[in-house]
Every structure is written in C-alpha cells, then in structure tokens.
Fold:
Amino acid sequence: MITRAPSSSATCSMNSATSPPAEILDKLATSYLAFLAAALDYGDGRFRNFMSHGRQWLEDADAGREDSHARSLWAAGSGAGRSRNEGHRRLAAQLFERGLSAVECFSSPRAWTFTLLGIHEYLRHFPGDPNINAMRKTLTGKLVKLWNKCATKNWPWFEPSVTYDNARMCQALILSGQWMPHKEALEIGLKSLRRQAVSDPLVAMASTSVAAHARTSTSNRSKPRQWSPPAMKPFAPPRMRRGQLRPNVPLSGSWAATTLVCRSMTSALEAAVMAFIRIG
Structure:
C-alpha cells in the first residue's frame, strides 16, 4: 500500500466551524511542509516520493523520480517566496537550497521547467543569490537548446510529442527570459505559448478570458499594451503515433504535498498567459 501526502482534512473539517480560514491553512501548510522535509534525503539531496502506511520510504538509493523532485522544489520555492510564516519560509528555503543542485544532472524537460518555476518564486524573497541565478541560467539554456533542436515551422514545440503540463514550459521561459533577462528564451516562451493557443481549443477559450483581463489590467497605464489572443492560424503537425498523447495523471507521494502551494492557478495555460501579460 502506498500513501499520499499526509492529510489534515479530517481534523480541519471538524474544526472548520470554529477555526478561521487562515488558521486552517496554516495547519495544512505545516503538515505539507513537514512531509516535504521528511521526504528529503539529506545525504544525496533528493526528495523521495512513495511512503508506505508504515511510514517507510519505498524508493531505492536513487530516491524519487525527477518529476516529483522538481515539483517538490517548486513547492519549496513557492513557500520560501510567498509564505507569511517566518518559520515556514525559512524551512522552505532550506529545503529548496538542499535539493536544487541535484537538478543539474536531470534529463527531464518537465523537471527543468518545474525547477525554474520554483527558482522564480524563491527569488521573490531571496534575490541576488549567485548559485540560484546560475542554476536558472543553466536550466533556461537547456530548454532553449531543446527547442532549437526539435522545433520546426510545422512543429513549433520542444519535443516530438505533446504530453502533460505543456504550458508550464512556456511559462518558465517567459518568466526566466524576462527576469534574467534572456531575449531568446522570452521569444521561445511566447512562440511556444502561441502554439498552445493554436492547437488546443481549451487553451483558445481560456485565452479569450485572459485577454479581457489584460485589457482591464492595463487600462490605467499611460501607454496601455493592447493584447488580444493569438490569431488562430492552423498549422500541420506531423501525424502522431497511437498512444503518444498521455493524460496528466497525478503522481502520489511528495508530489501531492505540493498541492497547497502549486495549484493556485486553475490551469498551466492561465499561468503562462498571465506571465506574458505582466511583461507588458
């Protein structure tokens, strides 16, 4: 049997009638952060992912998979950059710093992406760290190289197939490209986001509502940026093999512990488009 991240939902539901929302969230954040702290193997700096009901970690010496490790970093970076609880912020920052170096040898583009999002969050509160900035430069360069190797006129994407959390890659490059700054990364982030809007009808629908928000949010600027959804020009991607599209199946373990800090956006697309709006 495999457990997911520890849940305080039962306890919180019992106390919800008497406890204010802020107190409930603080208890949940404490539980999830404690799970992430326990998941980190301080010997090799890797987050483990699966725990039995007997509270025994089930991974081998290689610890958890790259995806769950990077999502844990994203959560820790978000906690370090956003938490109003000083103790939570310090622990999240420590976990982030301990686990960051392992990503340099990762081969998963999604792991690079989630780590970049965590780095962006971490630097909100701890700007100027040379090691963190160096890692952001390295991972951004890896995504740019991946794009240059794979993308063509008829297939403007990072990989030969479309899998899951695709717009997060756009978001990571838009944010990194803007704040480093890195002109090529920013341009690729916008191109890849446009590809998402063209190919995915759900993305196109979301783009319309986000565009309205963009026009409202820029109304008070002296020179407002008029933004509208990308032109819906179809392109002809290569025929995909059967089974190439995979659903976004949630992972268990330490990935689930990132829910509180990593799921504030309703979709990856919304986050990516909002990142674009903010650079205007």
Summary: The CA atoms of residues 75 and 263 lie 10 Å apart. The radius of gyration is 20 Å. Residues 9-217+250-278 form one domain. Residues 7-11, 217-266 have pLDDT under 50 and may be disordered.
